[in-house]
Structures are given as structure tokens and as C-alpha cells.
């Protein structure tokens, strides 16, 4: 099935990949480190950002909650700018749903 942005913009947004956000995220390394620690626990084999290691669990949860939302907002703003500045390119892109 092919999904075009012009068919349904909300379905288009649902099909964006996590990597699309990660590639544009300023704090991706920190957010990724925090996520891994919170979900899988600390693994001494991994190398974590020093700023993350300086936080306790509650600080990590607070940082993640706040900064993930900020990064998603920044990503959507950038996507909106791209749509405004280069609609002819973006509207031609077809996304295949799995």
C-alpha cells in the first residue's frame, strides 16, 4: 500500500521512522543512553554519556520526559519548514506502509 502525504497527513506522520527523529535530534545520545538505562538497566559494557552517569534515576526520568518532547517538537517544526520551503519535492515522495 502506498501512502502519500496528501492522502492523509496524520497517517504519513505515523509512518515516519524513529531514525528520522534520531537523525535530527540534538540530544539523541543522551536520550538514548537514558532510555537504555531506564528500560534495560545499567550495563557496564556500554559507554554512556558522562552527563547521564551524573544523574540519578529520577533525574533521568525527568530529563527524558522533558527533552524527548522538545526534540519531537523541533523535529516537527523542521518538517513543517521543509513542507513550506520545498513542497514540490516532499509531496512527490511516496511512503510504503508495511
Explained architecture:
The longest helix has 29 residues, at 57-85. The protein is elongated. A two-stranded antiparallel ribbon has the order 1-2. The chain is mainly α and 98 residues long. The chain has helices at residues 9-14, 18-24, 28-40, 50-53, 57-85, 87-90, and strands at residues 2-4, 94-96.
Features:
98 residues, mainly alpha, two-stranded antiparallel sheet, 6 helices, 2 strands, 64% helix
What's the overall geometry? elongated
Task: Give the C-alpha Rg.
Answer: 17 Å
The helix/strand order is EHHHHHHE
Total helical elements: 6
The rounded distance between the terminal residues' Cα atoms is 8 Å
The amount of helix comes to 55-70%
Secondary structure tally: strands: 2
Q: Could you give a short account of the major beta sheet?
A: 2 strands, antiparallel
Strand content: 5-15%
The strand line-up of the biggest sheet is: 1-2
Q: Can you give the mean pLDDT?
A: 80
User: Which structural class should the secondary elements be placed in?
Assistant: mainly alpha
The parts where pLDDT drops under 50 for at least 5 residues are: none
Give a short summary of the structure.
This protein has 98 residues and is mainly α. Helices cover 64% and strands 6% of the residues.
Helix and strand arrangement:
Blueprint: E1 2-4, H1 9-14, H2 18-24, H3 28-40, H4 50-53, H5 57-85, H6 87-90, E2 94-96
Antiparallel strand pairs: 1-2
Helix pairs in contact: 3-5
